[in-house]
Amino acid sequence: MGDLYIALIHAPVYNKNMETVATSITNLDIHDIARSSTTFGAKRYYIVHPAEAQRALAQRIMGYWQEGFGAEYNQNRQEAFTHVRLAADLAEVEAEIAREQGRRALRVATDARKYPNTITYSALRQRIEEKEDPILLLFGTGWGLLREAVESCDLILDPVYGPGEWNHLSVRSAAAIILDRLRGH
């Protein structure tokens, strides 16, 4: 089975007007995706933001739960945060995984929009289970990853769809659903 990595990209991403922006790191994304990542056996969850101040904020939030009262109060949260790393950009994430694995990770984009060259959940799950290749799942905040970032990936995962036309999940909800589909029992 290949190792699964997750990267939550905050810049560059789209806003609701499809302009390129950087979004803020949120407390809920830190906590919830860390917990989902740990539950479903992701090797690491990267929070990617180019602004040092945003990474410092995330470090302070995680530090509260990793040391002192927060760590004593909720040891499960402390454990989930042992799998979280902060990075300035995707290149830093990819370089760390390549050093650790001895090869580059297969980059898989997630998006709420449909692309012509997508892979189904069952096909990606089978690949994860049968091959030793490391997989890096990319999630975008705001209104998603830039089109060129998605199209530059090795694979693009099918969107998460409900029964209707409305399709705008929070990234933490989408991450939990996708992780369950790829690694759940």
Describe the SSE topology.
Blueprint: E1 4-9, E2 13-14, E3 20-21, H1 27-39, E4 44-48, H2 52-66, H3 68-73, H4 75-81, E5 84-87, H5 90-101, E6 106-109, E7 118-119, H6 121-130, E8 135-140, H7 147-151, E9 155-157, H8 171-183
Parallel strand pairs: 1-4, 1-8, 4-5, 6-8, 6-9, 7-9
Antiparallel strand pairs: 2-3
Tell how many strands the DSSP assignment holds. 9
Mean pLDDT score, rounded? 92
Distance between the termini: 15 Å
Helix content: 40-55%
Low-confidence blocks of residues: none
- Can you list the strand order of the major beta sheet? 5-4-1-8-6-9-7
What this model shows, in words?
This protein has eight helices and nine strands. The protein has helices spanning 27-39, 52-66, 68-73, 75-81, 90-101, 121-130, 147-151, 171-183; strands spanning 4-9, 13-14, 20-21, 44-48, 84-87, 106-109, 118-119, 135-140, 155-157. The model has no long low-confidence stretch (mean pLDDT 92). Helices cover 44% and strands 18% of the residues. The strands form two sheets. Strands 5-4-1-8-6-9-7 form a seven-stranded parallel β-sheet, sandwiched between helices. A two-stranded antiparallel ribbon has the order 2-3. It has 185 residues and is an alpha/beta fold. Strand 2 and strand 3 (20-21) form a beta hairpin.
